[in-house]
Design brief:
Layout lengths: L12 H22 L4 H26 L3 E6 L2 E8 L2 E4 L9 E2 L4 E7 L2 E3 L13 E3 L8 E7 L4 E6 L5 E4 L5
Length: 171
């Protein structure tokens, strides 16, 4: 007599590999449809970094009783200080060092609601476009940090020196 055949309970290696491959494909499609690779987070980070730097520069302008300026290009921004009637770049302030956005993001500027054209590169800008005064007042302006998908975080400074950050509008 032949021994009774045993039936193994479980999955074969091939079945497991096929299931894992299908799960990988499904997760890949889900990632493509839901995520943008962190681009939205980088936009928000750039906007909040600018807002924090503006608040710090405004405080330093008031405390040091010196005028500060902000020069902007489409690829970044840098703070300046008025010294002996000449605008000088800040070299000793790490928190207010020049910052650049990568090629995926661009800056735009509006002063008192009017768009101001920015050169492509920050190094093309010699003088500040906006001013942070020792009195606590500032040029009213908004900077938009936008990506290629036209999503933009807005950082606005009012004439009294208050700073506001606004997320992209939902459309």
């Amino acid at each position: 007599m032949l021994p009774a055949a045993r039936h193994a309970h479980g999955f074969t290696l091939l079945e497991l590999v096929v299931v894992l491959a299908l799960i990988g494909v499904i997760l890949g499609f889900a990632r493509l449809s839901l995520g943008d690779g962190g681009a939205a987070a980088r936009l928000e980070h750039d906007a909040r970094t600018l807002a924090a730097a503006l608040r710090l520069a405004q405080e330093e302008a008031v405390v040091d009783e010196r005028e500060f300026g902000l020069r902007l290009g489409a690829d970044g921004y840098a703070f300046m200080r008025l010294v002996d009637r000449r605008w000088q770049p800040l070299k000793d302030a790490q928190a207010l060092r020049p910052r650049h956005v990568d090629g995926e993001r661009r800056l735009t500027l509006a002063i008192d609601g009017q768009a101001v054209p920015l050169p492509d590169q920050l190094q093309q800008v010699v003088r500040p476009q906006v001013f942070l005064l020792s009195s606590g007042e500032a040029t009213p302006f908004c900077v938009a940090v936008a990506d290629r998908r036209e999503r933009a975080w807005r950082v606005c400074m009012a004439g009294d020196g208050t700073v506001d950050v606004a997320p992209p509008e939902r459309g």
